Amino acid sequence: MEIKKIVENKEDFMELLLLADEQKNMVNEYLYRGDLFALYDDDLKTVSLVTGEGENIYEIKNIATYEKYQGKGYGKYMIKYIIENYKNKCKILLVGTGDSKKTVSFYKNSGFVYSHTLKNFFTNNYDHKIFEDGKQLIDMIYLKIEF
Questions:
Q1: What is the pLDDT of residue 57?
Q2: Cβ atoms 16, 44 nearer than 8 A
Q3: Are 69 and 42 in contact (CB under 8 A)?
Q4: How many domains does the chain have?
């Protein structure tokens, strides 16, 4: 496995980024102001984008793995890579996600703990209803790791 930092042609990864954040204009809000990473294992498996959000705070804005490769450890490998690479750059690493038991558990198993909730984030910021595991996403749940 190899993770590469992508500095040019970030829009080439839009298809995969849209798996985690399904509205293109929302992805475009952070795509060009963050660090984009791509995980390859023969071919592209996973991407993640991390942005600076203030003094000593970074946020994982997006992490996505192609559906056929989900459950094989690529997302976990990417999260570990990001944690390792940002622990000396910031004091807090955030991740925002929908209130989905599966996704929240994924981050908690990676060392994140609950931080705060943004009420009505998905209903206020997306032009359509977003569902994950059959549940409509309404609030954004933020988790964090403090270094």
A1: 97
A2: yes
A3: no
A4: 1
User: How many Å apart are CA 22 and CA 27, to the nearest integer?
Assistant: 8
pLDDT digits (tens, 9 = 90+) for 27-40: 999 999 999 999 99
Between CA 133 and CA 102 the distance in angstroms is: 8
Contact 54, 39 (CB under 8 A): no
Closest CA to 22 of 125, 100, 113: 125
Separation between Cα atoms, residue 96 and residue 143, nearest integer Å: 6
Instruction: Dump the DSSP string for 75-126.
Output: HHHHHHHHHHHHTTT-SEEEEEEES-HHHHHHHHHTT-EEEEEETTHHHHH-
pLDDT band at 104, cuts 50/70/90? very high
- The CATH number assigned to the domain holding 119 equals 3.40.630.30
- What is the span of the domain harbouring residue 35? 2-146
Can you give the pTM of this predicted structure?
Answer: 0.91
Q: What SS3 class is residue 23?
A: coil
Would the CA dihedral through 113, 119, 125, 129 be positive or negative?
A: positive
